[in-house]
Amino acid sequence: xxxxxxxxxxxxxxxxxxxxxxxIDRLMSDKMSQLDGMLAGLEELVQxxxxxxxxxxxxxxxxxxxxxxx
Length: 70
Known about the structure:
- It is a single chain.
- This protein is mostly helical.
- The protein contains two helices and no strands.
- It has helices at 8-12, 17-56.
- The radius of gyration is 29 Å and the shape is rod-shaped.
């Protein structure tokens, strides 16, 4: 009935702290897995872009590079 407030114990009495913590842990684990996948994708993208940039750079004429010592 509208206007009647529900008993909080009735609403939340079945919840336990351990159940809430388990739900939070599961959600955090899922999000971390998603982030790991995103990071792997970013690493692949960075490697691909670095390769493309290297291919676009003109060949070095050796200026500014120390000759091998030995």
